[in-house]
Write a structure and sequence with these properties.
Layout: H1 5-20, H2 25-32, H3 36-43, H4 50-60, H5 64-67, H6 69-72
Helix pairs in contact: 2-3, 2-4
Domain Ner winged helix-turn-helix DNA-binding: 12-79
Protein name: Ner winged helix-turn-helix DNA-binding domain-containing protein
Keywords: DNA-binding, Transcription, Transcription regulation
Length: 86
Amino acid sequence: HDTMRPAREQHERIKMRLRLAGSSLAAVARELGVAATTVTTVSQGARRSRRIEAGIAAKLGVGPAELWPERYSAPKSTPRRHGGGP
């Protein structure tokens, strides 16, 4: 099934960016005190953890929304209506 392909590609990009920054998912795991497999499953999109997402993003000097826009894009507020006033 191709629904996992974008998440897999995103995971590979994150790993590459971490390598370029001189880090790794395992290093993020050590810093956060969690298992490397846990960080990997979050990076792959199979699991959510705002703490781990923030840890990975911080290593790259970006916000989590830049790495996982689909996870952070939906605002909690309701959209405002335009026009129609007296």
